[in-house]
Amino acid sequence: MRRWRSGLGLLPVLFWLSLFLVVPMLIVVVISFMGRDELGNVVFTFQASSYATFFDSLYLGIYWDTIVLSVVTTVLCLLFSYPLAYYIANAGPRMQTWGLALITIPFWINFLIRTYAWVLLLRTQGVVNNLLIQFGWIHEPLQLLYTKGAVLLGMVYTFIPFMVLPIYVALEQMDKRLLEAADDLGATRWKSFWHITLPQTKSGIMTGSVLVYVSTSGMFVVTDILGGAKSAMISNIIQSQFLGARNWPFGAALSVIFVITSLVLIALFNRAMTSRHLAAKEGR
Amino acid sequence: MHTKRKNHPLLGIHSLLVMIFIYVPIGFIIAYSFNSSRLAADWSGFTLDWYVSLFHNRRVMEALGNTLTVAIAATVVSTLLGTLAALSIGKVGRKTKAGMGGLLYLPIIIPDIIMGLSLLVLFTQFHIPLGKLTIIIAHITFCISYVYVIVSTRLAGMGGQLEEAAQDLGANAWQTFRHVTLPQITPGIISGALIAFTMSLDDFMVSFFVSGPSSTTLPIYIYGQVKRGISPEINALCTLLILVSVTLIFLAQFVLNRGKGQKKQSVLPF
């Protein structure tokens, strides 16, 4: 089979991604070990002071809050998404096409617009407050916007499609003969879900969770638009170091810490899921 | 399909509620874009005024021009590079293949904020002024991956029998490519290009870092306005952007699965 003469066609992509993806990230790592002058320009000295600054309780606290918010968002997305994905995967062919289309559409609607929608709903003169007042449940508008709750809501709202789609794909691809076998052996629906469907769709849960976790912790726009001054996340701090405060070494150090901790958390999660999967297999 | 589980009614209710949760906020933006009240607090009649004033807003039109320039340039280059990579990856050894595959997935996995700031650092260190060019370069970088994933999935799905047959019949490598491979992957290329265009059109995070004052794109303009509060014009602009993105994605999906006998393929990267 001769499709294409050689692998030379990979060279342009290799060149492009090295120059505009790999090299820039390496530069960020290098800058994280440098200092800066009074004007905010990067100075070529080797120091680890930016990393030391991170261990200030303020930044550690913000990062801890970021991790907690991202984990809670991931768990909520999973709880809302799994039943929905399951429903779509088991629906009739027409319903399935529609369900899939309906869940794909928000994936492609700009998250900025979807976040803005919540400003319309949650602000003091917004839809939710107006409705509550009309129903007579409250007399004064509630402060819904610029709260931690609004941020959590915005995050879950933004990332639900990222969770539904991988789980749906996993449900579609799982070996359904196992379910038949379980039925024949007299397993209850719940039992076969717990021992077959759930372990078989772990790849989807994993993909979805990693996507949601990484996206949430890197998403400064939702906190920026729906959150108050106190709900800043690590990504807001990073963003302001590069675009506002002009402390690049510190911003770079935060980015490095952010990427490394994300990778470690993902690896830990991966291991936990895999070992449970093995245990389930052995128990069968 | 007797292996399908019959859905429990509670599952149906849950799914309906999640769908309502997803669509009601978007529905309000669309509805308010036609509301004649400037405050959008309550409904005071249907109007198209906000759409009209959008087209008379010089800054919006300028941002639209920038957005289209960037999206077209990024689509052309990333489609070429991504397709070339997809065609070539089958020709290299296993290790190179794994390495390149990983590299090509990197832009999808890396958080946008990291990609944006590292490109900002690169451009600044090499004294490249921030503007349309830097946005185009940034967009090409992440669009390549989406084109690559779609075209290579398409290639993997078609098998090699037709190409083998063509070569057995005496076609040379170029003829085989031109008359056998290319027609079969064309839907993948078009679909990939449409996805790349949509990704570029919608991108905010990366553009935010690498755009200059005179190269505002529509998402960056929207961000600036949203930070100031709500406005009916922004509702109209958002509605239009939603309409365009959704249409393009449906088109991409349609083109990809139009042919008979093709394995169904999704435009999503996972």
From TrEMBL, chain A:
Q: Which domain of life is it from?
A: Bacteria
Against Pfam families, the record matches this protein to:
BPD_transp_1
Q: Which InterPro entries match?
A: MetI-like, MetI-like_sf
GO annotations under biological process? transmembrane transport
Q: Subcellular location, in the record's words?
A: Cell membrane
Q: Kindly give the membrane topology term recorded for this protein.
A: Multi-pass membrane protein
Task: Write out the entry's keywords from A to Z.
Answer: Cell membrane, Membrane, Transmembrane, Transmembrane helix, Transport
Name of this chain's protein:
Spermidine/putrescine ABC transporter permease
